[in-house]
């Protein structure tokens, strides 16, 4: 009897140990899918060789930082998680959203981020930055988080993440997120091929390498590292910029948001369909191949549906063009993202750890599928319908770690 109990207990304990996986999700903002080869990132390359690397991570439209970070942690298209661009207007609320406004008013977010899902099911979450992770969504924040108002040094983020993973079991988070912005910042200023981006890539690569090493040396729990980026980067040219002040827009009828790679025109309540149509044809007539007007069909393909945050008229363009309100002498060449999906807009996806198979590269996939993958690794049940599909990344999980029957 004792022997039976001992064996059973051992079996249960080892099963539990297997089930209790930890997930660390780190985003390197603006890290294009090919930067590992282009700029040299030996540490990230080594981690990829121990797990899985995707040929690219397809961003949601628009390929901007906030919509994509939220899609990664919610499994939803922007129209469904609420953060449809870095800056946008809501015709019902009659308010403008700008990056991070969810912290003051979390009703901007209309879904359940992975840290909410975890905390609701008794799994602690910790975020050393992730867009909107400080927001009290559905009445909860992660157990541990930091305000982005005074961004901390990158080394401090690594140290803190390691420290969280070494906490005693009752207070230790099993979901940890990290975020680095330097690669994106340099990409905007100097373009994706620049020496400055190379330097930033090498800086972050060193930090990630150190983090991975310390997980192996100092941390007892099984940690699965998921490295992602929100989007890629492409060159834009000062002489190809489109001056938005030349658009014949009546400000008493329309609210506008210049999102650099697209230009959004929202109709006011009193604005008639005829006035919208007139403006659309005027803008069409003066486009001259520099920009295009999104159609209902193109928007549907981009996952955009009608709603108070969807503009009545959306102008799009292609690199090296972009929309600007700057005077000619203030325009600079540089890098941008936010365009329709293309290889240049693809981000990074790498996963490695005890629950992840060692596998050759996998094909590119949309970032909305990462949420159900993380939920499965953590043993969390989805609580709301999502746009992502758990089947896409399910083959990456070693069979003994799946929670499905
Ligand atoms: Zn950016």
From TrEMBL:
<protein>
    <submittedName>
        <fullName>Alkaline phosphatase family protein</fullName>
    </submittedName>
</protein>
<dbReference type="InterPro" id="IPR002591">
    <property type="entry name" value="Phosphodiest/P_Trfase"/>
</dbReference>
<dbReference type="InterPro" id="IPR017850">
    <property type="entry name" value="Alkaline_phosphatase_core_sf"/>
</dbReference>
<keyword id="KW-0732">Signal</keyword>
<feature type="signal peptide">
    <location>
        <begin position="1"/>
        <end position="19"/>
    </location>
</feature>
<dbReference type="Pfam" id="PF01663">
    <property type="entry name" value="Phosphodiest"/>
</dbReference>
<dbReference type="GO" id="GO:0016787">
    <property type="term" value="F:hydrolase activity"/>
</dbReference>
């Amino acid at each position: 009897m004792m022997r039976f109990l001992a064996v059973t207990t051992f079996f249960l304990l080892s099963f539990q140990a297997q089930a209790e996986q930890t997930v660390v999700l780190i985003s390197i903002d603006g890290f294009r899918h090919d930067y590992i080869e282009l700029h040299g990132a030996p540490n990230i390359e080594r981690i990829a060789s121990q797990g899985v690397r995707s040929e690219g991570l397809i961003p949601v439209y628009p390929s901007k930082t906030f919509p994509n970070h939220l899609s990664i942690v919610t499994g939803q298209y922007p129209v469904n998680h609420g953060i449809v661009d870095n800056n946008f207007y809501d015709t019902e609320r009659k308010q403008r959203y700008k990056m991070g406004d969810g912290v003051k008013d979390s009703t901007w977010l209309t879904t359940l981020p992975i840290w909410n899902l975890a905390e609701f099911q008794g799994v602690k979450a910790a975020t050393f930055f992730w867009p909107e992770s400080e927001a009290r969504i559905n009445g909860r924040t992660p157990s541990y988080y930091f305000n982005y108002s005074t961004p901390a040094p990158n080394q401090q983020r690594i140290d803190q993440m390691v420290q969280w993973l070494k906490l005693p079991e009752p207070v230790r988070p099993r979901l940890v997120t990290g975020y680095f912005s330097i690669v994106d910042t340099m990409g905007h200023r100097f373009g994706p091929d620049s020496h400055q981006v190379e330097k930033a890539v090498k800086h972050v690569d060193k930090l990630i390498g150190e983090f991975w090493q310390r997980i192996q040396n100092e941390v007892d729990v099984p940690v699965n590292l998921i490295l992602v980026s929100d989007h890629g980067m492409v060159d834009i040219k000062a002489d190809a910029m489109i001056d938005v002040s030349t658009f014949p827009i009546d400000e008493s009828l329309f609210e506008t948001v210049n999102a650099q790679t697209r230009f959004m025109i929202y109709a006011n309540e009193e604005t008639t369909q005829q006035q919208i149509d007139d403006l659309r044809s005027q803008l069409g007539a003066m486009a001259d191949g520099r920009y295009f007007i999104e159609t209902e069909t193109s928007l549907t393909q981009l996952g955009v549906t009608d709603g108070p945050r969807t503009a009545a008229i959306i102008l799009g363009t292609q690199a090296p063009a972009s929309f600007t309100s700057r005077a000619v002498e203030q325009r600079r060449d540089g890098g941008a993202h936010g365009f329709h999906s293309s290889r240049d807009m693809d981000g990074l996806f790498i996963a490695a750890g005890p629950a992840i198979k060692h596998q050759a590269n996998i094909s590119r996939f949309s970032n909305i599928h990462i949420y159900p993958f993380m939920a499965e690794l953590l043993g969390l049940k989805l609580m709301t319908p999502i746009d992502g599909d758990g089947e896409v990344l399910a083959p990456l999980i070693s069979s003994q770690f799946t929670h499905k029957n």
